[in-house]
Amino acid sequence: MPDALDATPYDALLLLSFGGPEGPDDVVPFLENVTRGRGIPKERLKEVGQHYFLFGGVSPINDQNRALLDALSKDFADHGLDLPVYWGNRNWAPYLTDTLREMVRDGRRRILVLATSAYASYSGCRQYRENLADALATLEAEGLELPRIDKLRHYFNHPGFVEPMIDGVLRSLADLPDAVRAGAHIAFTTHSVPTAAADASGPAERHGDGGAYVEQHLDVARLIADAVRERTGVGHPWQLVYQSRSGAPHIPWLEPDICDHLQEQHAAGVPAVVMAPIGFVSDHMEVLYDLDTEADAKAAELGLPVRRSATVGADPRFAAAIRELVLERSSIERGQDVTPCVLGALGPSHDVCPVGCCPARAPRPAAAGADSPYA
Ligand SMILES: CC1=C(CCC(=O)O)c2cc3nc(cc4[nH]c(cc5[nH]c(cc1n2)c(C)c5CCC(=O)O)c(CCC(=O)O)c4C)C(CCC(=O)O)=C3C
Ligand SMILES: [Fe+2]
């Protein structure tokens, strides 16, 4: 047995995710949960419902999270880290509030949260923190003693997140026909968000011109493109592009969309494209529909060879990265010196979201940050 690792003061890890439907009857109530109060046009909702029905009403995200939980349990056990791992979602069972209640009943007092979103943004960070605050408010109203909740720093630039994606892009390039491989363009994709949300992402000093959201994605894209050049000797041209736009058409969102981008690349004579969904932690519906279905169809129509590279999912290197991040944060909370493990130009992200980080359109209480109303 390895020496036991020390996660004190934490007594549990909470995997916090989006949630997704597990059958046709779940689709509409799931979409209602997601879009409550968010002003998404009815037409868009109908269309997104169809994406789920095309896959039997089942989002792959829950099985992805189950696989990640298994990978985390295995990694923690193999390394002598005795820390229970729980799972709760924003939009579908197991619901965050129910999981948090169970954790309190199990006596957990200091909880560290791993969200399945690697980057700063309202949708990828503060909204999860708002959900944590809502859950705490519910437990408080039930008379339960509230645990203290912290959130792990953004892990977009952790080697355990980036390296599996480098391998994925290399595999996709290798999988392209020989004749088009050297000329292939890499389209790094992430979820589009309103440009106003991107501009206000991250701490106040990063606001403006795409904010921390765009800056962090560009950092990861550059890391992957550089690593690919080092390993293949070919400097593939690349661009950060967007997918899964929603919202009303008159509100500006980040562009270009991947499908328009494929068309432009094709028109410019690019012989092949690797689509690398760096904005997503696993192959969930955005990847299976928006890339593997819609963008693939667009490419087929153009006669453009494309490949889609893997997300990290339950890669053991990602599980190991989470262990390292847990131990790093535990040491910091104990007042010890640590050297954060990080790649790229931006350095490690903050441990605690400062006041004004990824502000909401309408301010609401958010936990696990400097502006948390909870301890
Ligand atoms: C930045 C970002 C991430 C990445 C970070 C993270 O992972 O959290 C993400 C992930 C996800 N988004 C998901 C699903 C949906 N997102 C929607 C709507 C929206 N997403 C937004 C942003 C993001 N979303 C935004 C700005 C909206 C507009 C409405 C609003 O401002 O809230 C809608 C409504 C319909 C639509 O309009 O598409 C659905 C169904 C699923 C589950 C997939 C599955 O089931 O497998 C996942 C992982
Ligand atoms: Fe989304």
Automatic annotation (TrEMBL):
The keyword Lyase applies. Pathway: Porphyrin-containing compound metabolism; protoheme biosynthesis. Gene3D superfamilies: 3.40.50.1400. It catalyses: Fe-coproporphyrin III + 2 H(+) = coproporphyrin III + Fe(2+). Fe(2+) binds at residues 191, 286. GO terms for molecular function: lyase activity. Pfam families: Ferrochelatase. Belongs to the ferrochelatase family. Involved in coproporphyrin-dependent heme b biosynthesis. Catalyzes the insertion of ferrous iron into coproporphyrin III to form Fe-coproporphyrin III. PANTHER family: FERROCHELATASE, FERROCHELATASE, MITOCHONDRIAL. This is Coproporphyrin III ferrochelatase. The lineage of its organism: Bacteria, Bacillati, Actinomycetota, Actinomycetes, Kitasatosporales.
